[in-house]
Design goal:
- The complex is a heterotrimer of chains A (354), B (179) and C (258).
- Chain A is of the alpha/beta class and 354 residues long.
- Chain A has helices at 8-18, 33-45, 56-68, 79-93, 121-125, 143-160, 170-174, 214-234, 254-269, 287-294, 310-318, 337-347, 350-353, and strands at 3-7, 21-26, 49-52, 72-77, 99-105, 136-138, 163-169, 176-180, 206-207, 238-241, 248-251, 274-279, 281-283, 299-304, 324-328.
- Chain B has a single domain, classed as Pyruvate-ferredoxin oxidoreductase, PFOR, domain III (Pyruvate-ferredoxin Oxidoreductase, domain 3, 3-Layer(aba) Sandwich), CATH 3.40.920.
- Helices cover 34% and strands 21% of the residues of chain B.
- Chain B contains five helices and six strands; from the N terminus they run βαβββαββααα.
- A six-stranded mixed sheet of chain B has the order 2-3-1-4-5-6, sandwiched between helices.
- Chain C is an alpha/beta fold and 258 residues long.
- Chain C is built from eleven helices and seven strands.
- The chains are: A alpha/beta (354), B alpha/beta (179), C alpha/beta (258).
- Chains A and B meet through β8 and α9 of A and α1 and β2 of B.
């Protein structure tokens, strides 16, 4: 396979289709719209289902319906639309159904703007909707990683029968970069044992999330929590740069993590012992590795394109053991490497600087 | 080596395509590359710009605050982006539509009468590209031509010859100017 | 004579009444005198008669019929409040060979789900909607609904409902995507028989792929209306029928040929 110059949104769409997505339902919203447009053409070409819904609320419920039939299905949106999908995502999660939701994050709150942001960290990692659960959340930092994580998202969704959110930001969605797409996977005719296909020659199957008795609802919650424990044990993902001898650690994901890498590279060239830890799974948060690194460094700088949301997970992970500092830009402002360099330099003990 | 370029002008001047073409050519030559558009709510006629980073190393930040090369196609973009160029950076601008000049004396400046010398107005971008690669061969003109041939949309393939002509025209203009 | 007594009769008995196969044996939680039970039975009988049970997928609502997916002996699922038409769209688009049915009350369909039902009908989704209209929110304890009658007193309209009821059959009937939209009533046997015929037709419309089909059923809610079951049936006739006339609101020519 050769590398192609691909826009993030298009790359995610094409990767989803190659991962065997049978049905897509969406609604236009900048900065993810190319994703929907690409699938509007490609899905019918392949004889698969594409539908532009009347709202994000309808789109996620169409995904819910398609997921009931046991096929791979997806929707995509950005902050305001993801807010509207929270209800449907909660139902999907509470029905043990796999599906993928792509959030190409933009500036908020409210209508905000269409520029890149990471302001949806809370709404995607804490629980997408009401109730007590977490989706699996994956955050790409390049177009190639967006492709790879889209494939992984479908595989994890099926493996755990769980909601997976690909949390990209407007920069990843709009950027073009060389990337290699995977080969087209064949669609399987087989449907999982929960799929609603009509009760022909078998007992009826029912998919619902309604438990009137406290004990029954609690038992179901314990079932979700047990699954989340397995997910936390097996699916923490991260990558790191220059961490072997780092005394100062930057923690950033997605675009912010990638921009921080430029700052780290530049300071390394000047002999400053700084490293970068980039979470790839936002849920489960890669706490095991971060805890190890935190024990080795004198301070941590969290960099995000928000007011400090992942910051809370870093605090929960590292607790009081290592001083934690924060640098963030909001509202679609993108930090440049120099800003992060300056924030890091302020944290350096004077002996390191001299 | 790392080059950080900004392409800026009116929507419809082929700004986005010029940046993408350079990105294709750089990719085909084995470089790391990123292309980012500005994306505004206006669909047509607004200021359009895109930034391209070309590097022989993996690219950290794709966001460019101080580009090393400015490809400026219209007057509003000249005022907006020339002050942001790196010291000792290169400014290539479309003299056909930009009457003003800059007081900066720390730039290499290449004025190009691109629109006047384009086989058609919509090929202004290729005249600018021909000029850029002549004065600053970050890639060869042949590499760009190969990328054009490989990536031009099928319905525009008949325009390939005109595009090549525009590139050559830009190259001639650059050769005449002492930067 | 003794010989006859020793030999059992061999004259076969005709089954004139039994549980429909499409209806499960589980007792429902509906209040005494509520016509949801009648609506369930009619749908189940129609599915049996058309031999569709094994192809059917039911999308249940939020409201009194929230457990409908348990009461039918077929595949089923549960939609968020009002979203059944969207969910049914997702199922039907992936598996057009299935018979996809939503069963929705008036709060679900006409209030919170007004957008979803409108667009499913406008797109001409080949689904069948059973719309149970009792002019009130039942499950949450009798609040005013968009379908409540002018002046109707409920726990959230204690001084009488302002405005006029939303007539969904009339509204949806003007959409080109709608193939079959009718309103029937469940307040007496004659009307119940007509309702059964309409449900049969609606299912055939989906089988034939003619477009969106909906049967609205005027239903009773003795508990929240504060009436006895017989009074409630009378209330449908006296008060609901004038506001919600039974009739055929949209019947494509192709439907008449079924």
């Amino acid at each position: 396979m050769s590398r192609e110059l691909l826009k993030g949104n298009v790359a995610i769409a094409e990767a989803a289709l190659r991962a065997g997505m049978t049905a897509y339902f969406g609604y236009p919203i900048t900065p993810q719209t190319e994703l929907l447009e690409h699938l509007a053409r490609r899905m019918p070409e392949l004889g698969r289902t594409f539908l532009q819904a009347e709202s994000e609320i309808a789109a996620i419920n169409m995904v819910y319906g398609a997921a009931c039939t046991g096929v791979r299905t997806m929707t995509s949106s950005s902050g305001p639309g993801i807010s509207l999908m929270q209800e449907g995502m909660s139902y999907i999660a509470a029905s043990d159904l796999p599906c993928v939701v792509v959030d190409v994050m933009r500036g908020g709150p409210g209508l905000g703007n269409i520029l890149p942001s990471q302001g949806d960290y809370f709404q995607v990692t804490r629980s997408a909707g009401h109730g007590d659960y977490h989706p699996i959340v994956l955050a790409p930092a390049s177009v190639q990683e967006a492709v790879d994580l889209t494939i992984l998202a479908f595989d994890l969704a099926d493996h755990y029968r769980h909601l997976v959110i690909l949390a990209a930001d407007g920069l990843i969605g709009q950027m073009m970069e060389p990337a290699e797409l995977p080969p087209m996977r064949d669609l399987s005719d087989e449907r999982p044992a929960y799929a609603l296909t009509g009760a022909k020659g078998r007992a009826p199957r029912r998919i619902a999330s309604f438990y009137l008795q406290a004990e029954a609802e609690e038992a179901y919650n314990l079932h979700i929590q047990a699954r989340l424990a397995r997910i936390r044990a097996a699916e923490q993902r991260s990558t790191e740069y220059f961490t072997e001898d780092a005394q100062l650690l930057v923690v950033g994901y997605g675009s912010a993590g990638r921009i921080a890498l430029s700052a780290v590279q530049k300071l390394r060239a000047q002999g400053v012992p700084v490293g970068l830890f980039r979470p790839i799974s936002l849920y489960p948060f890669p706490e095991v590795r971060l805890r190890q690194l935190a024990a080795q460094v004198s301070a941590i700088l969290v960099v995000e394109m928000n007011a400090g949301q992942m910051l809370e997970d870093v605090r929960l992970t590292v607790a009081e053991h290592t001083p934690i500092h924060f640098y963030g830009r909001m509202g679609g402002a993108i930090p440049v490497p120099e800003e992060i360099e300056n924030a890091l330099l302020k944290l350096l003990p004077t002996e390191v600087l001299s | 080596m790392q080059h950080e370029l900004i392409f800026a002008g009116f929507g419809g001047q082929g700004i986005m395509f010029a940046g993408q073409l350079l990105a294709y050519a750089a990719m085909d030559q084995g470089y790391h590359v990123t292309w980012i558009p500005s994306y505004g709510p206006e669909m047509r006629g607004g200021t359009a710009y895109c930034t391209v980073v070309i590097s022989d190393q993996p690219i950290g930040s794709p966001v460019v605050k101080h580009p090393s090369i400015g490809m400026i196609f219209n007057a509003p973009s000249f005022d907006k982006f020339v002050p942001m160029l790196q010291p000792n950076g290169l400014l290539v601008y479309n003299q056909s539509l930009i009457p003003q000049s800059t007081t900066r004396d720390d730039l290499l400046i290449l004025p190009v009468s691109a629109t006047e010398n384009a086989p058609a107005p919509q090929l202004t971008n290729m005249v600018m590209m021909g000029a850029l690669l002549t004065v600053k061969p970050i890639l060869t003109l042949d590499a760009l031509k190969a990328a054009l041939e490989a990536h031009i949309p099928a319905h525009r393939r008949h325009l390939l010859k005109d595009n090549f002509e525009a590139l050559a025209s830009g190259a001639r203009l650059a050769e005449q100017v002492t930067v | 004579m003794t010989d006859l007594l020793l030999e059992p009769t061999t004259v076969p008995m005709e089954t004139v009444y039994c549980m429909p196969q499409a209806l499960g044996s589980q007792p429902t939680h509906y209040c005494p005198g509520c016509t949801h039970g009648v609506a369930h039975r009619l749908l189940a009988e129609a599915l049996d008669e058309l031999n569709l049970r094994e192809r059917a997928i039911l999308v249940a609502p939020v409201g009194c019929a929230v457990f409908a997916y348990q009461y039918f002996e077929m595949d089923g699922c549960e939609a968020p409040h009002g979203r059944a038409p969207a969910m049914a769209t997702g199922i039907k688009r992936v598996q057009p060979e299935n018979i996809v049915i939503t069963y929705q009350g008036d709060g679900d369909l006409a209030s919170i789900g007004a957008g979803e039902i409108l667009h499913a009908a406008a797109r001409g989704e080949a689904i069948t909607v059973i719309f149970v209209n009792n002019a009130i929110y039942g499950m949450t304890g009798g609040q005013v609904a968009p379908t409540s009658l002018t002046g109707q007193r409920t726990v959230s309209s204690p001084f009488g409902r302002e405005g006029v009821p939303l007539q969904m059959s009339e509204l949806l009937s003007v959409l080109p995507g709608a193939a079959y939209i009718v309103r029937r009533s469940l307040h007496n046997p004659a009307n119940i028989r007509k309702a059964k015929k309409a449900i049969l037709t609606a299912l055939k419309v989906q089988q034939a792929g003619l477009g969106f089909g909906m049967v609205e059923l005027l239903s009773s809610c003795p508990t929240n209306w504060g009436l006895t079951p017989p009074q409630a049936l009378q209330w449908i006739e006296t008060n609901m029928l004038p506001a919600f006339p039974v009739g055929d609101y949209k019947v494509l020519d192709a439907v008449k040929e079924l």
